[in-house]
Specification:
The complex is a heterodimer.
Chain A (H helix, E strand, L loop, with lengths): L11 E3 L3 H17 L5 H14 L1 E3 L2 E5 L3 H28 L7 H30 L1 E3 L2 E5 L3 H17 L5 H14 L1 E3 L2 E5 L3 H25 L1 H5 L1 H5 L5 H16 L3 H19 L1 E3 L2 E5 L3 H35 L4 H37 L1 E4 L20 H6 L5
Antiparallel strand pairs in A: 1-2, 2-3, 3-4, 4-5, 5-6, 6-7, 7-8, 8-9, 9-10
Chain B lengths: L2 E7 L7 E8 L2 E6 L4 E6 L3 E3 L9 E5 L5 E4 L3 H6 L13 H37 L2 H18 L12 E2 L2 H15 L9 E5 L6 E4 L3 E5 H6 L3 H16 L2 H19 L8 H10 L5 H17 L5 H16 L1 H6 L6 H9 L11 H8 L5 E2 L6
Helix pairs in contact in B: 2-7, 4-6, 4-13, 6-9, 6-10, 7-8, 10-12
The chains are: A alpha+beta, B alpha+beta.
């Protein structure tokens, strides 16, 4: 029995059964409801153990070492840190609710900037927890660096991307992923990432160029009103501005489904590029992930969600009219509408995992090639410290998947 | 002695080694294919990493390390027997697991009930006491702006405005409220507002804002009834029930957000729970306001009949209008009515002259969009 198989497409695979995972997630959902949401940390741990265990690289499965208790404690700590921020924001929002000046606007902008920064901190901490709780062949992964330093990089490049209307996006991706990868390790083997932002930017143009053309055309067509600021200003309240945004930005986006296609294509191309530029020690990787496959998977997922959503909506509507006929009060009718919708929201996560996340993970595994895999054997257990609790900030801010 | 083929990861290097495992009385020995012993695991430390599942290999671990043994042969689990007494330490039988979860459900419900019933009211009272009056007034104005949007019409721009604006009628109501508060040791500042809604209700908001609805003034059969309601609302203001209620609903919203793992945004379920929990003052608060009202009416020389008559009629109306019940901050319970009626029905001077009462009744002849507050 030799663990080293280097035939193309055999380097990794996902062999979990969707049915088993679906049953596990349903059980988690039920227990979570019964425990007012507290069980979800243990439920999530079960799901991760399942997914990691069924992800096999070079014939050896990954192992998830985290526990529900760690996630729970991490969450409690995050709540203690974040609760004052949210409480202060809500309170200030309340106090300035009828302030005629720009106080509310300034408050909102500041809040979202702070939130964006906190989310970046959360992302780094989440990655560190997940990597330190993942092992392969009995050797742990890990992540160094500081979450503040990562947040500064991500925040700076995020502002740059916004200021350049998205043109700097590939540089933001390269900078953030490079910081992440170059601080990650597998045992004593360092991980490195050396992507080419210029190469990515040329692909990124395929996404932004059609958008720019359509937006430009749209401005040209609407130039009469666009030049005539008075036209928008004369509209009541903020409707003038809203109409301007609708006509100049939203409408072009809506009539531009090509952007969705190019976006998916770009993300897959980026994934392949990043995978190709990744090294663990002296081991290299190649991904042959196919944009077409990803597109079909997303389409199947969206169609499934839309049809389930339509069914649930129709059910809620018929419940509401049924109750209204019996003369029930508005609170009963509200419950009749809200309960099916809440159930739909809860189930949406399961549908997403089964129809989207897992097939994409399986595809990424099947199309992965590993070169110089023997070099991985050089890696030994690292003595670096591992965090003792996990991921709380990300959980509290609802960052990340399962 | 039976030997089981396995793959061995020593937890120190990323190497997969084909090995054979031999079970002894006090643990297991791991043999290299070439012969020599690679490692031996004490029985106490041997754990199942995962529950053995058909179609999946058996994974054994050494406690406190990431050393692993992966075996295809499931017989090894039974063969380990007494050699590995803590094999299933992290697993429990399903019956015990269910019992454990049931215990957590009960504990979670109990602590949740404790927080909602005891801790949040206590903290809200503390915070309310520490809030400066100017802040309370700002909060009150925000609540008022939300309240007029929530109350069913006639309201809004189409009907001329949210607030009644005939100054003579408002001035009479303001004088009535000031008179009721006048000889209190620490008289609260009261600001009277009449909102243009057909709902029959009155509200006390933070910062001493006393809200009457147009529907209430129309429904009242006499000035004494309005005076009774004003005295009751003054009780809520004097005891600062409304500031506490605002803090309480705020805390409940945060708590629900925390439980649902969604601190940053409101959720459908959160809104529903918050709404259910905050649909009224507590029974104690109402009783406090009632007692206060009876005492204030007596001090001002006004009869108490108006208060009891009016609440009795309001309770009748409640029965057939669920919407009023939802929005009402005054769940008029049978117990409360009995209490008000049980009090000695004192007579007194009328609350105001017939002329003033006519001014009050015409307060909504003109309307405006913003409240006439300083």
């Amino acid at each position: 029995m030799t663990p080293m198989q280097e035939a193309p497409g055999q380097a990794a695979r996902f062999d979990g059964r969707g049915g088993a995972l679906g049953a596990l997630m349903l059980r988690n959902l039920l227990f979570s409801i019964l425990t007012f949401g507290i069980y979800r940390f243990w439920g999530r741990t079960h799901v991760r153990r399942f997914v990691w265990r069924h992800t096999t690289v070079l014939d050896d499965a990954l192992e998830y070492l985290g526990t529900g208790g760690e996630l729970f404690i991490g969450f409690l700590i995050a709540v203690a840190v974040l609760l004052p921020v949210f409480a202060a924001y809500s309170m200030l929002q309340f106090l300035f609710a009828d302030d005629p000046g720009y106080a509310l606007l300034v408050l909102e902008v500041l809040y979202y900037l702070v939130l964006f920064f906190l989310i970046q901190i959360a992302i780094h901490r989440m990655r560190r927890y997940r990597l330190t709780r993942a092992a392969w062949r009995g050797v742990r992964f890990g992540l160094g660096g500081s979450s503040l330093a990562y947040a500064r990089v991500a925040f700076g490049y995020g502002l740059l991307t916004a200021a350049t209307l998205g043109f700097a996006y590939p540089w933001m991706r390269v900078a953030t992923l490079k910081y992440f990868a170059s601080h990650a390790y597998f045992g004593t083997a360092r991980i490195a990432l050396a992507p080419n932002a210029g190469w990515l930017f040329r692909r990124w143009l395929a996404v932004v160029a059609p958008l720019m053309v359509v937006t430009g055309l749209s401005i040209a067509v609407n130039l009469e009103q666009f030049g005539d600021i008075q036209y928008f200003m004369e509209q009541e309240d903020n409707r003038g501005l809203g109409e301007a945004i609708l006509r100049l930005v939203i409408l072009p986006l809506l009539i531009c489904p090509i952007t969705i296609l190019t976006w998916i294509w770009y993300r897959v191309v980026e994934f392949r590029h990043m995978t190709g530029c990744l090294t663990i020690g002296d081991t290299g990787f190649v991904s042959g992930a196919r944009p077409k496959y990803v597109f079909w998977r997303i389409l199947i997922f969206v169609l499934a969600m839309v049809s389930i959503g339509a069914l649930v909506g129709a059910f809620a509507a018929s419940m509401a009219t049924g109750f209204a006929k019996t003369g029930a009060g508005p609170s009963t009718i509200a419950v009749a509408v809200i309960v099916p919708l809440a159930v739909f929201v809860l189930f949406a996560g399961i549908v997403r995992t089964l129809l989207l996340d897992i097939p994409l993970l399986a595809h990424a595994c099947e199309t992965l090639d590993i070169s110089n895999a023997e070099a991985l054997e050089e890696a030994a257990q690292s003595s670096a410290a591992v965090p003792s609790y996990g991921e709380g900030t990300a959980e509290a801010l609802d960052v990340g998947g399962f | 002695m039976a030997r089981y083929p396995a793959r061995y990861y020593d937890g120190l290097t990323a190497r997969s080694r084909p090995v054979e495992v031999e079970i002894a009385a006090t643990g297991i020995a791991i043999f290299d294919e070439a012969g020599p012993v690679l490692a031996s695991w004490p029985g106490e430390g041997i754990r199942l990493v995962e529950k053995p599942r058909p179609g999946e290999p058996v994974r054994l671990g050494l406690a406190g390390t990431t050393a692993r043994l992966v075996l295809e042969d499931h017989d090894v689990v039974a063969a380990l027997g007494k050699a590995a007494p803590r094999l299933r330490r992290r697993q429990r039988t399903s019956g015990r697991a269910v019992a454990r979860i049931a215990l957590w459900v009960v504990l979670a419900a109990a602590s949740l009930a404790g927080i909602v019933v005891v801790i949040i009211p206590l903290l809200s009272a503390q915070f309310a006491a520490a809030t400066p009056d100017s802040t309370k007034y700002r909060i009150g104005r925000s609540v008022l702006a939300q309240l007029v949007e929530l109350l069913p019409g006639p309201a809004g721009a189409a009907s001329g405005g949210h607030y009644c604006s005939m100054e003579d009628g408002l001035a009479v109501l303001q004088r009535l409220a000031d008179r009721l508060a006048a000889d209190l040791p620490d008289p609260p500042v009261v600001r009277v507002v009449v909102v243009n809604s057909r709902v029959v209700n009155a509200f006390a908001l933070p910062g001493g804002i006393m809200v009457f609805t147009r529907g209430l003034i129309r429904e009242a059969k006499s000035a004494d009834e309005v005076a009774g309601v004003a005295a009751h609302e003054l009780g809520h203001i004097a005891h600062d029930h409304s500031t506490r209620a605002v803090y309480r609903s705020f805390a409940v919203a945060l708590l629900v957000g925390v439980l649902l793992g969604d601190l940053s945004g409101g959720t459908v379920a959160g809104g529903l729970a918050e709404w259910t929990l905050n649909s009224g003052y507590s029974r104690d608060a109402e009783r406090e306001a009632d007692a206060f009202a009876l005492e204030r009416l007596q001090a001002a020389g006004i009869g108490s009949g108006g208060l009891s008559d009016f609440f009795a009629r309001l309770a009748e109306k409640d029965k057939d209008s669920p919407l009023i019940r939802i929005l009402s901050t005054h769940p008029a319970s049978a117990e409360r009515l009995a209490h008000i009626r049980g009090a000695e029905r004192r007579t007194g001077r009328p609350a105001m002259t017939e002329e003033d009462w006519a001014y009050v009744r015409s307060a909504c002849l003109t309307l405006q969009m913003d409240p006439a507050l300083p």
